[in-house]
Design goal:
The structure holds 2 protein chains of 2 kinds. By secondary structure, chain A is mainly β. Helix content of chain A is 0%, strand content 52%. At the A-B interface, strand 1, strand 2 and strand 3 of A face helix 1, strand 8, strand 9, strand 10 and strand 11 of B.
């Protein structure tokens, strides 16, 4: 019979604590971030070695998503900014969008065109559609807000 | 708390979802369920002494995982570990303990479902643990 075991691949000790993580689409890279720190860290998911520290946000990071092709990483900070990072070449951020929203807890889809943001106390959910997020300033296309009781 | 597979056919829920999502350090006695969304039926239902806001559903919808306290009572000061369930087989298949650290914050499967990663505390620093799924023939 087949049994499944979990082999511990790697353990990472990071000076910066991580309250959230995201795998790249190929599973080889891991991004870690926390809501009180502006820096996003990239790790090699096989060896645990640090790959990069993405600096640019002014406030803590509350959401991140790799684009489906793995070449870009989208990050959202609590001051309402979104940054796009070139994950493949380790170049510095390519775009910054500023939103009137103050993000609390966000989910970003894999092409960077929609961001869902849950308010701090879980009573409101904003879904923001973005026209463009790569290579230029992002523009809000539309935003929808739910009533109390929504959650991600 | 909620997690849904990419096809939208299976949904993982943990009791008191809004309470847990809104207050990251809250904990409570909870039940974890995985649902067949179309049929509205529970495929897996397990009681957890406690659960941190860290649950995950594998991308193929066959495994569920949760960060749980090892004392089974939900004491936040107790060490934490990660449990994995086989949803179709309705059984716990893995209990991952961390020797020097405490997975506490977040749990996530890789897109191919073969890796599982958790974050938490380790010796006064941030800790990230990554596990790889292995098939062992007995």
């Amino acid at each position: 019979m087949d049994a499944t075991t979990g082999k511990e691949l790697t353990t990472i000790a990071s000076r910066q604590s991580a309250d959230s993580i995201r795998f790249s689409p190929d599973g080889k890279c891991l991004a870690s971030y926390e809501r009180t720190t502006p820096t996003v860290l990239l790790w090699d998911a096989l060896t645990g070695q640090a790959r990069d520290a993405l600096k640019g946000h002014a406030t803590g990071v509350v959401g991140a998503a790799f684009r489906a092709d793995g070449k870009h990483l989208y990050t959202a900070a609590s001051d309402g900014t979104i940054r796009t990072w070139d994950a493949a070449t380790e170049e510095r951020p390519t775009a910054t969008g500023f939103f009137a929203f103050r993000f609390a807890r966000t989910a970003i889809n894999s092409d960077g065109t929609r961001i869902a943001d849950l308010s701090l106390f879980g009573s409101e959910l904003d879904v923001i559609k973005i026209n463009r997020c790569v290579g230029q300033t992002a523009a809000i296309h539309s935003a929808a807000r739910t009533g109390p009781g929504a959650f991600l | 708390m909620l997690a849904i597979d990419p096809t939208g056919s299976r949904l993982l829920t943990v009791g008191s979802s809004i309470f847990l999502q809104a207050t990251p350090f809250a904990t409570a006695t909870n039940k974890l369920d995985v649902w067949n969304v179309a049929a509205g039926k529970a495929l897996l239902s397990v009681s957890l002494g406690s659960v941190r806001p860290g649950v995950a559903l594998s991308p193929d919808g066959t495994r569920a995982a949760a960060i749980v306290s090892l004392d089974g009572k939900g004491d936040l000061k107790a060490p934490h570990g990660v449990k994995v369930w086989d949803i179709n087989g309705k059984k716990e298949i893995l209990f991952l303990k961390v020797p020097a650290g405490d997975p506490f914050h977040h749990l996530i499967f890789s897109p191919d479902g073969r890796k599982l990663a958790a974050t938490g505390f380790m010796l006064g620093m941030g800790g990230i643990w990554i596990w790889m799924r292995q098939q062992v023939r007995n």
